[in-house]
Design a protein that fits this description.
By secondary structure, this protein is an alpha+beta fold. It has one domain: Jelly Rolls (Sandwich), CATH 2.60.120.10. It contains six helices and nine strands.
């Protein structure tokens, strides 16, 4: 089960990311400002960024929160705004995600289970786009699809290279 679902189901708060609410709510203009600095979205127009900001929610999670778990269903696309997270795939390969990196797109594209476990190394702030809005994201920011495909291709090549060693 994805972490947003866990929030809605009132799981133990210390193990679960929570929406940014009380005391800090990222305004639409602030979201757009942050999105302008994300490499994945750098070619988007202001109108496209406004649409992305409209469909995205901001979530914060403490260090050691499991954001996605390998084998589970995936319903969200994640863009890391602040902090870092570690990615662990079956077979032991690990990598680190930093601000501007994204994950979760594979499950939304093929409706398959998560291919990796992603855990917050530090406290993180994430922009989260639910499955029902992901197609809107791809439609509104046409160059985004190619960037996501290029990233997926790079990840597959890295896994193939690691498997060949």
């Amino acid at each position: 089960m994805e972490f947003v679902s866990r929030i809605m189901d009132a799981f133990d708060v210390k193990d679960t990311p929570r929406p940014v609410l009380s005391g800090f709510r990222m305004a639409q203009d602030s979201k757009i400002e942050r999105l302008q600095n994300v490499p994945l979205l750098q070619d988007c127009s202001t109108r496209q960024l406004r649409e992305v900001a409209r469909i995205a929610q901001v979530f914060e999670a403490p260090a050691e929160t499991v954001l996605t778990r390998v084998g589970e269903a995936g319903d969200e696309f994640f863009l890391l705004l602040d902090g870092s997270a570690r990615v662990e795939v079956p077979g032991g390969r690990r990598s680190v995600l930093r601000p501007g990196d994204f994950f979760g797109e594979m499950s939304l594209l093929d409706e398959g289970p998560r291919s990796a476990t992603v855990t917050a190394d530090t406290a993180v702030r994430l922009l989260v786009i639910r499955r029902r809005h992901f197609a809107t994201l791809l439609r509104e920011a046409s160059g985004l699809t190619l960037k996501i495909l290029a990233t997926l291709t790079r990840r597959v090549r890295q896994l193939e290279s690691a498997a060949a060693k």
